[in-house]
Amino acid sequence: MSTSSLLYKLSLSDWERIAFYALASEDTFLGPPSVIHALSLVSRHVYNVTSVRNNSRLYARIFCFKFDYAAPARRLTERWLTSRCLAKELIARFTALGRIRRKHDIRIEDLWISYLLMSESDGKNESQLLEWAGLKEYLQIIVLTRLHLNTPWDSDLRLTSLIIWLFWMTTSRTSIQAEHPDINRFMDTFLRPFVTAGYRVPSVYGPDSYHSIPLCERITSTPTHCSGPLPPLSVVTHYGHELTLAAPTLTCAATLVTTVLFEALSNSQTFPNNAYHLPADRASAGPNFVGPTLEDLLRFHFDERIHVPGRCAPTLDLNFDQGDSEEELKSETNPPSLCGSKRYDEDWSRLVSCHDPRLVTPSPLRGIMFTIGCLAGSWEGRLLEPDYEYHVSALRDPRLGPRVPLYHKPLYWTLREHHCLLPNTPLCPGNGPEGDDDLLNAWLPRGIQIVPQKDAIQIFNPNTGFSARYETFIPGSKAAFEDLDAPWIPQEEEEDNFGDNSNPNADPSSSYIDDDDEWVDTVSHKSSEICDILITGETSERDGAAWGHFTLIGRVRPWDGLVVLLRSPRNPNEPHLGRWIFKGYVHDQNFVGRWRDTSTHVGTPGFEGGFVVRKADLGEA
């Protein structure tokens, strides 16, 4: 039998296996599958049977070999993950990565693909981006070009947000310390205005003056808020389908990168010499000494570290002889550990679900916005405070933003999480001066009384006579609700299921499942039975003696997981310590966002800056 006849007798499945074994012979899994191109040159027939049009399963398997699959399998529904969709995504990704590798074209769609790749990364994606495409150098070129051309720092917020988030997702302290000092200085210059003048750029996904979102029909005007504009939207092509996304919040990423730059470059030379004149520790300071000791300053300067994303080692699966079903194709590519991409699941949910605060119907791709119990514990970090005089000047002249000095100050909290469980009725939001939910009192009614009870608190509103019980989350103990992994479904959604994650009768090989006009995504969630979350806390006696004693109370917004805390001096006779609002999101193991004073009207920029804290009992990843 001639070789030519043998070629024609092989089935598509045979060619799929042949192509895979050829793929395994390549020296590295990085980059496009060049061996497939070489194989297609054998003959016109081989070209046809190995083309993406006629053999999408081949390219779907190449996708699962080259890129991570666990996150999309977890986040997306059936119609996004057919062989045709994976083949399209493979081509789109390597087209974008090729442009990034050549470093001569800046496209918003390439940055979106890079961000989503990092969001889904369990090792393979980041290797493709960093080692083959050279993403870090590409980002540096963009930043240096913008600085050289004196591009306005708040122009194209989508592009800027994605650049800074990608810097954060690919940064380590070691890489910062190995970088040329000029690069680190340029990065600080680039980031400074987004921290000192964060009121001009997006910080939250929905108006922060409202705890209850989606906004009801009676709110017809533009809602009052003090966190800058809402994130701009993008329509991207993701796994062959159009998807509307909100840009990730810019100030959170800027605060994270600014903080890790400062921490990575802090050493004995940057420690203030005049600190050695302070008492050595609290014991030697005496009972009347107020303020930090040398021990307190050393602890803050050297010991406090925010959590920085670590690299994941890629796991390669070279077993190509699996079955032919779509389900087997998916199951063969799930890595044993999901620690990489899982840390970005809440960020993904906000992007796909929180782009329209008036949208009543939840996105079918909506997932967990806030991990139950994640705030309970001791937190430590830093507050980024702009120079007050420069800050006031920058309010009048935005061009001064990059030149505002920024001071790093310690931040210590011990927080407790309290849950109102169905069928109980939660506390109503407070009434603000503009008909809003009183952001400057952490969305709480003024004058409420909190009575501690065993493993719970009782909230009483003397203005209305309303009382509610909130169960206190105890880390490590059996919770009052069944499933901590169940997403937190707010009470106003009477149904805790939005349909089924996939149609069990659907045939993934049918073309209609890929058709946006014929197929509608649905998703189901099991309710955690929590209808409201309150937060209480304080500074410890040790930290309070050094930096001031404070109490904290706040709330979590179900719609996007936004946390708002009101920090007040424990002693009413110390108003100089400031009554401030802290608002932000939990990103991975960091709680990061913006703080501001409460003496300024909610719709007017006040004295504000950034903050970031992390759990004190977590080791560095």
Structural overview:
- By secondary structure, the chain is of the alpha+beta class.
- Among the domains are: 1-128, no CATH class; 368-493 and 525-615, no CATH class.
- It contains 21 helices and 15 strands.
- The strands form three sheets. The protein has an eight-stranded antiparallel β-barrel with strand order 3-4-10-11-12-13-14-15, surrounded by four helices. A two-stranded antiparallel sheet has the order 1-2.
- β6 and β7 (466-472) form a beta hairpin.
- The longest helix has 20 residues, at 83-102.
Task: Describe, in short, the structure shown.
This protein has 621 residues and is of the alpha+beta class. It contains 21 helices and 15 strands. Helices cover 33% and strands 17% of the residues.
Secondary structure blueprint with pairings:
Layout: H1 3-9, H2 12-24, H3 34-40, H4 44-49, H5 56-66, H6 70-75, H7 83-102, H8 108-119, H9 124-132, H10 135-148, H11 157-169, H12 173-178, H13 181-196, E1 233-238, E2 241-246, H14 250-264, H15 282-285, H16 294-303, H17 326-331, H18 339-342, H19 345-353, E3 377-386, H20 388-396, E4 406-421, E5 449-453, E6 456-461, E7 466-472, E8 497-498, E9 523-524, E10 530-538, H21 541-547, E11 550-556, E12 563-569, E13 580-587, E14 590-597, E15 608-615
Antiparallel strand pairs: 1-2, 3-4, 3-15, 4-7, 4-10, 5-6, 6-7, 8-9, 10-11, 11-12, 12-13, 13-14, 14-15
Helix pairs in contact: 2-5, 5-7, 7-8, 8-11, 10-13, 11-14, 13-14
Protein name: F-box domain-containing protein
Region (Disordered): 493-516
Biased composition (Low complexity): 500-511
